[in-house]
């Protein structure tokens, strides 16, 4: 009896540990993480302004020094938010795109400055890599990290309700603010649904990590079809819920607990102004 009881307790412990591991594995994707850091406390309008300014500067220049400074600021914000490890882990989603952008810009960017490292004629396409194309490919990768990195940080530190309220506070039309806010909220929901479908298909013996790329295409159908059905069902549920709540009946819907700019927001705006001035000076006077 003692042996049976010990075996049962061990099996129970293993099952509990397996459930906990499964729950930890399901916490994937880019989701809002509650916190009380200065980045969390920033008004969503301030973070949107930061995203806009950083993106504009990165598009106006291909200088690696300027874009690296912006990326360093984003890394500092991620460290200040207390979510650096999660933010860095979320960037793994960009690895295939980063590799694709780097290779395409390296061999097909038409930047011929500097010494030539590689040259080949592939059918009717001439591929070559030079110092200029290497520099340009690095700048494009950093630009991608700036836009996507701060977007991920924005999602991880901004509540869906606060984002909608901030858009309404900016006098954005209600239908637009609701659509953008719902799109932000849907990223987390779709991520959870995709993880649930993948776990369900794996429990049925389907392995997504093995096989050739052509075989993986067939396996992805087992993911796309359930996700399509889930999205169609959810869209019907959302439309029914909106109708039951009388959405669109009020001409000027009220806004409860409207967001207000605080000291951290004014500090961030001053910092943004300094970054714009520094980037302008570096681009036009120093890094010519």
TrEMBL record:
Keywords: Membrane, Transmembrane, Transmembrane helix. One of its GO terms (cellular component) is plasma membrane. It holds the Pfam family CbiQ. The keyword Ribonucleoprotein does not apply. It is found in: Membrane. The chain crosses the membrane at residues 48-79, 91-108, 134-155, 220-236, 266-287. It is a multi-pass membrane protein. InterPro entries: ABC/ECF_trnsptr_transmembrane. The keyword Transmembrane helix applies. This is Energy-coupling factor transporter transmembrane component T. The lineage of its organism: Archaea, Methanobacteriati, Methanobacteriota, Stenosarchaea group, Methanomicrobia.
